[in-house]
Amino acid sequence: MKNFNLPKVSVIIPCYNQAQYLLEAVQSVLNQTYQIFEIIIINDGSTDNTKEVADRIKELDDRIKVIHQANLGLSAARNSGITASTGQYILPLDADDKIDAKYLELGINCLSEKNTVDVFYGEGIFFGDKTGEWDLPDFEMPLMLTRNLVYCSAIFRRTIFDKTKGYNQNMKYGWEDWDLWLSMLEQGARFYKSNEPLFYYRVKEKSMVKDIANENLKRQYLEQQLIVNHLDLYKQYFPEPLTILRELDTLRMEKAAFEKYKKEIYNSLSYRVGDFILKPFKLIRQLFK
């Protein structure tokens, strides 16, 4: 069967100091049941051995290209890769993640058969230092404006991407994928979620231990920037979108206060003494259940 009539998928893999995971990500693409693709690795000024690893990986398959550039950040790296790509469809893939072997096939089938769909994705799975299913609600507006419902590695049409300004570099602390999805929504994009688990997101132990105060500051910045970037879209659903931020801050403060209070109660002497006194009675109650 000739392949020249089948659409090509450009898999864009930015990499910054993730050399130890890069081959696994690339291999998950090479293992696809749908083989009409190109892989573009962007070494974003890494200070580890990413350059050497990427250049060796390039020798595995003539569909793999490597770009070496100064460190410009994730948004700029993805944009560079997409600019250098030639596929009709785009799949961004972080260097420490991987995809299911059927992802491209299912995505291309859906996008080819459903002309109204612009973005395709499936269920997600955690792996690494945390395992299990990723609880992703189905795509819905306006829920998408308050929570990112689509992971970073969805497959999308180049035509819808070209209608946007690409990944926005003012999302400097993250959420650049969420920002792009909102940009696509502003251009009339339709999203489709498969029930198949198609994306594997690596969780690392150090990413689970965070400076809460610093994370809250980053979150506040990103929430404000997201609304500023898409103010007209937010206004379609929320007459005063900036009030969302104040409500979210209040909810977070209330939750933090409750968690602190709960911790203080559990650690209090009276709670521990009471638990010690009641423990034998709890054991007896269990025996007679």
Describe how the helices and strands are arranged.
Blueprint: E1 9-15, H1 19-30, E2 37-44, H2 50-58, E3 64-69, H3 74-84, E4 89-92, E5 98-99, H4 103-113, E6 119-128, E7 132-134, H5 143-146, E8 155-157, H6 158-162, H7 176-186, E9 191-203, H8 205-208, H9 212-229, H10 231-237, H11 242-267, H12 269-287
Parallel strand pairs: 1-2, 1-4, 2-3, 6-9
Antiparallel strand pairs: 4-8, 5-9, 6-7, 6-8
Helix pairs in contact: 1-2
Short description:
Keywords: Transferase. It contains 12 helices and 9 strands.
Give the topology string: H per helix, E per strand.
EHEHEHEEHEEHEHHEHHHHH
- The oligomeric status of these chains comes to single chain
CATH architecture descriptor text of the largest domain? Alpha-Beta Complex
Q: What would you give as the CATH superfamily of the largest domain?
A: Spore Coat Polysaccharide Biosynthesis Protein SpsA, Chain A
What number of domains? 2
Task: Sum up the overall morphology in one term.
Answer: globular
SS-derived structural category: alpha/beta
CATH level 3 topology of the largest domain: Spore Coat Polysaccharide Biosynthesis Protein SpsA, Chain A
Give a short account of the largest sheet.
9 strands, mixed
**Straight-line N-to-C gap:** 67 Å
Computed Rg: 23 Å
Q: Can you tell me the CATH class of the largest domain?
A: Alpha Beta
Overall mean confidence score, pLDDT: 87
> Approximately what portion of the residues adopt beta-strand conformation?
15-25%
* Uncertain residue segments: none
Helix count equals 12
Protein name: Glycosyltransferase family 2 protein
GO molecular function: transferase activity
InterPro entries: Glyco_trans_2-like, Glycosyltransf_2, Nucleotide-diphossugar_trans
Organism: Phaeodactylibacter luteus
